[in-house]
Design goal:
Layout: H1 5-10, H2 17-34, H3 38-41, H4 44-52, H5 61-67, H6 72-86
Length: 87
Amino acid sequence: MRTHSLDEALGPGTLSVCGCCKTRKVVSQIADDTRTPAEIIVKPQILRNLCWTDEPRKRDVAEFLKSQGARDWQVNLIAASVSRVIM
């Protein structure tokens, strides 16, 4: 797998740029499926915080989303899908 230069700078504890793209894509797909703007599904800052946090793959995504202020319906809607793409 080709490594992007920014990925190298991020270090081993954070998601790669591609991993962050995947989380945005999955949220975008959920937004399309529910005909809801992606920024309503989850605040973009919350996704950025998840991608840039230490060891995102080891985090409980649902708990992280709740701790960042996501509502229960948002967590229920995206946590499982986001967990799958960051693993």
